[in-house]
Structures are given as structure tokens and as C-alpha cells.
Write a structure and sequence with these properties.
Length: 428
């Protein structure tokens, strides 16, 4: 078995020579492809590449004298193989015409080395009987979902962030906000951005699952966004049944009793077709945070997720194993949800229960990680509920909006502005 890690000395020297012969074209190709010093298996070549790109970014000349002087100034001439090796690079190729091919070859061999090293480490952990299998599976899924993908360079300067904001405000770029479709609520929150963790709480059978599915309907069925629903309470069939009932719309009880008319069946088929065409996955067998994270990362690698939903927090096991401190377990889940939102660049909507006093269970553990916490509250009028913005980081908190609630269709909708509930006292 070949134990030498994949590498191509000729491609490495060819890439460096191309940078020396045609700095502008080869340098632009290196930046576009995302070449890094680690892609060079030979340390001397990695040192020279770093020096060349440093000079290229500053617009400085790259000839034998300036390059060797640069390497000498940073104390890297010896590590680069000395002046004689630098001289050899200038005459290694007659032309830089194949610079991109050399750089792509470097990328391929670098990925092969990464795969070998990561797989070896994972195999070693798999042999260890004390290794937590859920954590190992999560690491495997994360690794397989990210290996080989070019690292995107995140915005770091204030100027980049300012330009991004101005483009969004001017309408030059499409907004990435996730809206609920409830206009008054969306006015209060401004929508949720990628990386946000949103908590939606209610009492048992208070409408939190319906609210979540309405958000999915608004963003992923009526439009073309992608979502993953991790449902620990309802089966996949139950989730789909609710979506169809809301979208058709057809009474859910009539569907369960199979008492629907021909016209209603047409509406059901039409709604079902729209759901089938959507990019929504429903996962019911991920019972722990590592399992959920692993599946989400895996799905995200196949097609980037815009929304991840969890129904609901208290049913998902945390990272800690002792099970004695519920607050700590829920805090672990909450932190994990926030980390997942930031890692995938999506909105995570996690449902939670209210306790007997109408307060968010484990509120201290959950609220500190959330960008927005919503509470769905009952009203004294059938067909109306209140949605309270309990807390949010980027807007007013404590305000309530009344919304129309159609339990037969498990559907929330906008309440007419002339409805008396708009004038009622804020529901607590």
C-alpha cells in the first residue's frame, strides 16, 4: 500500500513559475480558486507561494532580486530552499498558459490528503469503545458535508458590511429575511435573518406546531426556499396532513374521517402536488442534538437549507448525559441550535412549551441564545389568538398582535384591522 500522501511536485513548481511569469493572470486565478499555502505539500513551495501572494496583493514586482530579498527579509529564504531553488523556478516553464490547471491539481491533491487524514482520525475514534457514537456520527456528517467545498471568505471590514447593508436597503439584492406572512407580526420583527435562532412557545396544543408549519408554507411552498423539519412529536404523515389542510384548505377532521367531497379532493390533490414539488424534508428519527446536527449538515451539503425547524425543544436530548439538570440540558440544546443556525447560515425555528403559569419553560436557558422569542397566547374569543414578541435583539419587545386562528385548518392568518381585538388590552 502506498503510504506517501498524494502530491505533485511538478504542479507545485509549475504554479509558482506561472506566478513569476504572469503575476496578474496567475495571481487572479489563485485567488479565485482559493489556493492556500497548505495546498503545497512541499514546505519550501508553501513559503515561496506565501511570499509571492503577499507581494501580488501589494502590487509589488516579483523578479528574482525582489523575491529573494523579500524572503531574506522575513527570514524565509533558507526555508524556501535558498536562492538557487528560487532561480530554478524562473526557468521551470516557458509559459504560464497552464497556470489554472496546475492550481486545480494542487487543490485535488490537497483534498486527497485532507480526506486521508480525516478518515484516519475518524477510524481511530471508531475503534475506541469509549467514544460517544452520536458525537462521532455528527462529526462524520459535518466532515463529509464540508470536505471539498471552497472556503468562503466572510466579510470582515466595515466597508464590506456597509456595502452589503446599502445594497439590501436599495433593493439591489433580494432580501434573505424569513417572514411569517402575518403582516403585523412581520412589521414588529422585520423578518428573521440567516443565523437567527427563533423560539416559538405556547401551552400544550396551543398552536406552536401549526405556526411553524405556516411559516414553512409561506416560505417553502408558496415560494422556493428549502427547509428541514425535525419533528419529535408528530409523524411525517401528520405534518403533511396539516400542511395540506392549511394549503387546500380542507378541514383536517374531515380528511382524517375520509369525508371529503369531490371538489375538496381536487383541492387536496392540488395542495399535495405543491408540497411534493417543494424542497422540504421531514425527519422524525433524530432524537438527540448530535443526530439532528448531523442530519442538518448532511442535508445542507445536498442543497443549502434556508430554514431548520425543531418540534420541540423539551423532547430533544441535550449534550449532557446525566439527565439530572434539566436546565443545563435545555441550555445545551439552545446553544446547539444557535450554533447550527450560524454554521449553516439559516434560520432555526425551535418550538418550546409554556409551563402551567404561562411562562416559557427553562426560559433563562433558552432566551439567552435566541434572537427572537414569540409566545402564542389564547384569547377569550374563539378564532383569535395573540402572538407576543416576548423578546428580540433587533426590535421592540413586549408587543402583542392579534391573529385569526382557524383550528379546523391549523392555520393562522391576518386579522382584519377593524376587529375589536386590535383595540383590546395587550394579552399577558
Amino acid at each position: 500500500m502506498n503510504t506517501i500522501l498524494p502530491q505533485s511536485p511538478d504542479a507545485e513548481q509549475g504554479a509558482l513559475c506561472s506566478l513569476l511569469l504572469s503575476p496578474r493572470d496567475a495571481g487572479c486565478a489563485a485567488v479565485e480558486i482559493g489556493v492556500e499555502p497548505a495546498w503545497f505539500a512541499c514546505p519550501a513551495n508553501a513559503t515561496i507561494f506565501s511570499a509571492l501572494m503577499d507581494r501580488w496583493q501589494k502590487g509589488e514586482p516579483m523578479d528574482f532580486i525582489t523575491l529573494t530579498a523579500h524572503l531574506r527579509a522575513i527570514g524565509g529564504l533558507e526555508a524556501a530552499g535558498g536562492a538557487s531553488y528560487v532561480t530554478e523556478l524562473f526557468s521551470f516553464l516557458p509559459t504560464a498558459a497552464f497556470a489554472r490547471q496546475y492550481l486545480e491539481t494542487l487543490r485535488e491533491h490537497h483534498l486527497r490528503r485532507e480526506i486521508i487524514q480525516a478518515a484516519t482520525a475518524l477510524a481511530s475514534r471508531a475503534y475506541d469503545p469509549t467514544e460517544d457514537i452520536s458525537g462521532l456520527l455528527g462529526d462524520i456528517a459535518e466532515w463529509s458535508g464540508t470536505i471539498g467545498r471552497r472556503k468562503s471568505k466572510s466579510k470582515t471590514t466595515a466597508k464590506e458590511h456597509v456595502m452589503d447593508l446599502l445594497e439590501q436597503l436599495s433593493g439591489a439584492t433580494e432580501t434573505a429575511s424569513v417572514l411569517t406572512g402575518l403582516e403585523a407580526l412581520d412589521e414588529l420583527t422585520g423578518g428573521w435573518e440567516p443565523g437567527n435562532l427563533v423560539i416559538v412557545a405556547s401551552e400544550t396544543k396551543g398552536g406552536k406546531s401549526a405556526f411553524m408549519l405556516n411559516v414553512i408554507e409561506e416560505n417553502c411552498i408558496r415560494t422556493d426556499r428549502t427547509a428541514a423539519i425535525f419533528s419529535l412529536e408528530m409523524s411525517g404523515k401528520e405534518n403533511v396532513s396539516r400542511l395540506i389542510s392549511s394549503l387546500a384548505p380542507v378541514c383536517g377532521m374531515a380528511m382524517r374521517r375520509r369525508k371529503v367531497s369531490i371538489e375538496q379532493m381536487t383541492d387536496i390533490n392540488r395542495a399535495a402536488a405543491r408540497i411534493c414539488d417543494s424542497k422540504v424534508d421531514i425527519i422524525t428519527d433524530a432524537r438527540t442534538l448530535p443526530e439532528m446536527t448531523a442530519r442538518a449538515v448532511q442535508l445542507h451539503a445536498q442543497r443549502p437549507l434556508d430554514i431548520v425547524c425543531l418540534d420541540y425543544i423539551q423532547l430533544l436530548g441535550g449534550i449532557s448525559k446525566d439527565g439530572e439538570n434539566r436546565e443545563r440540558e435545555v441550555a445545551s440544546v439552545s446553544r446547539g441550535m444557535k450554533a447550527l443556525a450560524e454554521r449553516l447560515g439559516c434560520v432555526v425555528i425551535a418550538l418550546s412549551q409554556l409551563n402551567d403559569k404561562g411562562l416559557l419553560r427553562e426560559s433563562r436557558a433558552i432566551g439567552q441564545d435566541a434572537n427572537c422569542v414569540l409566545g402564542i397566547l389564547a384569547s377569550d374569543e374563539p378564532g383569535v389568538k395573540f402572538v407576543e414578541v416576548v423578546a428580540q435583539r433587533s426590535g421592540p419587545s413586549g408587543d402583542c398582535v392579534p391573529v385569526a386562528w382557524r383550528p379546523s385548518y391549523t392555520h393562522f392568518k391576518n386579522l382584519e384591522r377593524n376587529h375589536p381585538k386590535w383595540k383590546s388590552e395587550k394579552k399577558k
